[in-house]
Design brief:
The chain has about 270 residues and is mainly α. About 50% of the residues lie in helices and about 5% in strands.
């Protein structure tokens, strides 16, 4: 099985310092196991980083961890001037639970190897009484709220002012500032995420047969939507709605007048 100790640690090799060598081998095996599930590099990297931080905080290795270590670590993360958000804590607890499930699974052989080398075996240290449940659909901070229409207009005006200021001063960056202003408004009009927005291209603007008045800007095809676990990016189509039809002339101006100049200047553009 991907991640098994027999595929990570050669049977005829003995480490001079077995404890850190075993820990690194565990992380290597867990990496391979996650790669076989087609998880993204970022997901795997974030999980490995969490396990390393947890081990460094406690000064112990997985076969020495106890539930009290989990409680001490997350109590520290929730204290201080900048405590972690509830969703972040819950996600980290889930990742730590997955790592413990991996090293305690008898099919991978890590528990028996730890018993032979150290006289201890790793156990599942995350349980119902020291981890948070996902009981609320929204876990954002209460202090965060949506912008009012006046605040949103101020934001858009500030983006437009950057373009005018650079143009009046005859400074570089006019096209880049213009692109940013259009992207900012496009994000609000179509509701795209950061990666979705960054990966847009001109070909993603589509006609909508039921909204011919919007021409080639009747819909936006999002090709790099948020992926499910182990799956490629999702695709979806966002329609231009009457409440947001003010975005159509802005896109027309960008595509027909500004985009060509942006392309000649070597500036990367979206949409």
């Amino acid at each position: 099985m991907p991640g098994a100790i027999s595929l990570v640690v050669p049977g005829n090799v003995r480490a001079l310092d077995p404890a850190p060598a075993m820990f690194e081998a565990m992380l290597t095996g867990w990496t391979r196991q996650q790669q076989s599930r087609l998880l993204s590099k970022k997901t795997i990297g974030d999980r490995l980083s969490l396990v390393r931080r947890f081990a460094l905080f406690n000064g112990t290795y997985p076969w020495e961890w106890t539930p009290e270590d989990v409680e001490a670590y997350f109590s520290a993360q929730l204290s201080g001037t900048s405590p972690l958000a509830h969703s972040t804590v819950r996600g980290q607890q889930g990742d730590l639970q997955l790592f413990c499930a991996f090293v305690t699974d008898g099919r991978y052989g890590w528990a028996s190897a730890c018993q032979e080398a150290f006289g201890q075996v790793p156990v599942q240290v995350c349980h119902d009484w020291n981890t948070a449940d996902h009981v609320a659909s929204f876990e954002g901070r209460p202090g965060r709220r949506a912008l009012t229409y006046d605040e949103l207009q101020t934001l858009f005006d500030a983006a437009d002012d950057r373009v005018e200021q650079r143009r009046k001063r005859r400074r570089k960056g006019v096209l880049a500032a213009w692109r940013d202003a259009v992207l900012l408004k496009q994000v609000y009009a179509f509701g795209t995420r950061r990666r979705e927005t960054a990966m847009l291209d001109l070909q993603d603007l589509r006609h909508n047969p039921r909204a011919k008045m919007y021409g080639r800007f009747g819909a936006l095809e999002v090709r790099f939507g948020k992926a499910s676990r182990g799956s490629p990016p999702k695709r979806r189509t966002v329609l231009t709605v009457p409440e947001m039809d003010w975005i159509v002339p802005l896109l027309e101006e960008w595509v027909d007048e500004v985009r060509a100049a942006s392309h000649r200047a070597g500036i990367r553009h979206c949409g």
